[in-house]
Design a protein that fits this description.
heterodimer, A: about 500 residues, alpha/beta, Rossmann fold, 4-stranded mixed β-sheet, about 50% helix, B: about 240 residues, 4-stranded parallel β-sheet, 13 helices, about 55% helix, globular
Chain lengths: ~500, ~240
Amino acid sequence: MTRTATFLGMPTVAPRGVGALRGDESFPAAARKALGNEQLRRNLGHATRTIRAKRAAVVGEVPDWEELRLAGEALKAATMARLDTLLVQLEEQVTARGGTVHWARDANEANRIVLDLVRAAGADEVVKVKSMATQEIGLNEALEAGGVAAWETDLAELIVQLGHDKPSHILVPAIHRNRSEIRDIFLREMPGVSPELTDEPRELAMAARAHLRRKFLSARVAVSGANFAVAATGTLAVVESEGNGRMCLTLPQTLITVMGIEKVVPDWTDLEVFLQLLPRSSTGERMNPYTSLWTGVTPGDGPQDFHLILLDNGRTAVLGDAIGRSALHCIRCSACLNVCPVYERTGGHAYGSVYPGPIGAILSPQLTGVEDNASLPYASSLCGACFDACPVRIDIPSLLVHLRARHVEERAKRPAPSPEAVAMAAAAWVMASPARFRGGEGLLRLGRLLGRRRDRISALPYPLSAWTASRDLPRPPAQSFRTWWKTRASGGAS
Amino acid sequence: MRVALFVTCLADAMFPQVGKATVTLLERLGHEVVFPDAQTCCGQMHINTGYQKAAIKLIEHQMRTFEQYDAIVAPSGSCVGSVRHQHAAVAARAGKAQLAARAHDVGARTYELSEFLVDVLGVTDVGASYPHRVTYHPTCHSLRMLRVGEKPLRLLREVRGLDLVELPEAHQCCGFGGTFALKNADTSAAMLTDKLRNVLATDADVVSAGDSSCLMHIGGGLSRLRVETRPVHLAEILASA
């Protein structure tokens, strides 16, 4: 482990996020591969269109939806402003009610704490509730390396795990799979599955059910994430659809919850707002089927040993950016993914991180440092559909623009400027002066030499070849607007 | 009313007919159009690509050029979106509070064409005639930064002889996104493919929009497909009589 520099016992620099937050290649390179997969595009197009329609219907029936969004935004901003005191309050409340709170600076620390707790409980396997935090820290891999088997119990997570795959969506991690692919994975990987299994959704669900029931009844330790934590009472909340979460949260003796520090809310009245915003935005339901709430340990009922791990993994660094910090307001509903035209075509894997889509494009680079995820802020046409869909009104397009600026500012510290920076500086130099801008017209007239045969330009050298690979450009006009205006003003043209 | 035309650098250099149409239209409605010829570019490309330091110079220039006018009109949702919603934020981020205040002020007086016609001038029938089958693509920034909503469609519905056909999945981005079209060319092209499929499904002669940039993208795709459907800016349709 690398030691973090400290001052009076405190880290001098907020730790960077480690874990499953970085891809092996840049977004454009990964996207190119994904775009070549016709099946993937069909699966994604179908799934996102379905969820979009469901969400639009249930959001449309709430008369005060915009007010709810404003409330959600305000509550999150107020929470972030006093996150330090709220977290301490949460720790006090959880401890007072029989739970144990651990603080994890990063993914490695969190994984080590979980592994130690599982070993202390004398277990060699755990059941898991679907959780983004544990995906982020790569907990399953860390447990496996430590000799502990982790069983995902959410149906989609199970599909991903059995398929030796990675999640590609926050809410529907197997969105890139269709049912016949799922059937193949089950037949290949699920112990004791009937070879007669068809791709009927009900049959697939029943096969998973039989498989998981054995795990629920035998596991002594469960690991979960948390959607919310109420600081006032130390209460944790998990919302889900399948009931597998409820099983994990109630049956085993030991429960370990890994939660990002930004998930805390001050009080129950705040929860009321988010429990309205979340299901409608995520699954397109008025209310999610299961909402599990627990407070510390209740003697004789449910887990008798409860541990809460509060995870930083780069979040404090995000909090330090006054513009970027609203990315921490995210309640992981995934509405932005479902409306994103980029996500719909590339899928989640292209983003490299466990957080895909628009929210991933602003969250991952901030957790890791922009230089480690430099292509993600550019993985958007800035169309703004994400901002409109976000239940807590995170202005994702503006944050993307801000992170692009941070990347350029970071890059400018290197001795040699990038070709793009040179081109941008030249363009700004031309555009900052009307005289030079007028001079640029000469270049355009030169451009008229191209495309003179068919009045269109179909091939240009790099980097503009990226445009002409699939699109033409019109031939530049013989006369600019300003030249026309001048001749008109002098009475020369109509 | 005296209207300052902010023609946008793209229309100035590549699509002068859009600027001319805006002038024709506003003059036909009885307004005086002036063209502050110091104008260059609002800096949106620099801002959206991350070059905010360079953009500051362009924002300062935009303010110097336009702040003396009461009404500034551009035939572009995207450029107006940048002036109204980005300039002040970029200035504030650079710690230039005074420039931010000026940008805020100028932004409030800068209008996209359909907004200006409907909200400021209060007209929907601009006296145009355009006997063609037209489908309209609402550009992302006009829709989601400026919230022009139905305004362009209200204007088009009043045009004589115009057969307006609804564009399927109209609100989806065409994939242009400025330098996105180059940096993420494959994804951009995939988005364009779907937009083109929807445009062609309408069987329209003309696909219109309020932004030359998006139309250049859609038009570039149509041109590559060698189909007859033409991109025509909203201003050109409204100027036709």
